[in-house]
Write a structure and sequence with these properties.
Layout (H helix, E strand, L loop, with lengths): L1 H15 L11 E7 L3 E6 L4 H11 L1 E11 L5 E12 L3 E6 L5 E2 L5
Parallel strand pairs: 4-6
Antiparallel strand pairs: 1-2, 1-5, 2-3, 3-4
C-alpha cells in the first residue's frame, strides 16, 4: 500500500513538473512577415490586434520563435526554437499561423 501511494505521488509530481505540459497553456502561433523572411512565434494570451499595438508602442517584441521539430516519440511538432526580437521597422504584416501539428507549450 505504501509503495502504491509513493508511486502515485511520484507520478503526480512528474505530471505537475514544469515542462510536462500539465496546466501549461499552449500558445497561439503568429507569422511575422518582413521583406527578407517570415518568422513564426508563439505567444500566450494575445491576438493580432494586441501584438500590432504592442509592436507599435514598444518598437520591438521579444518572443519564442517556433519551428517544426521531432518530438521524443518521433512525431513532428511545432516547438520553441530560440528567443528572438522582432523590430517594428522590419515588419510588414502579422497574421495568425495555423498548423495541423501539435504545438508545444512555451518554456518556463
Amino acid at each position: 500500500m505504501v509503495k502504491r501511494i509513493a508511486a502515485l505521488a511520484l507520478g503526480l509530481a512528474v505530471a505537475a513538473a514544469p515542462g510536462s505540459g500539465l496546466a501549461q497553456e499552449v500558445p497561439k502561433l503568429f507569422k511575422f512577415v518582413s521583406a527578407k523572411d517570415d518568422v513564426v512565434i508563439g505567444v500566450s494570451g494575445a491576438d493580432v490586434d494586441g501584438l500590432a499595438k504592442r509592436l507599435v508602442a514598444e518598437g520591438q517584441i521579444a518572443a519564442w520563435q517556433y519551428a517544426v521539430q521531432k518530438a521524443v516519440n518521433g512525431d513532428l511538432v511545432q516547438a520553441p526554437l530560440r528567443r528572438i526580437a522582432i523590430l517594428r521597422q522590419d515588419t510588414l504584416r502579422i497574421e495568425p499561423f495555423a498548423t495541423p501539428l501539435k504545438v508545444v507549450p512555451l518554456p518556463p
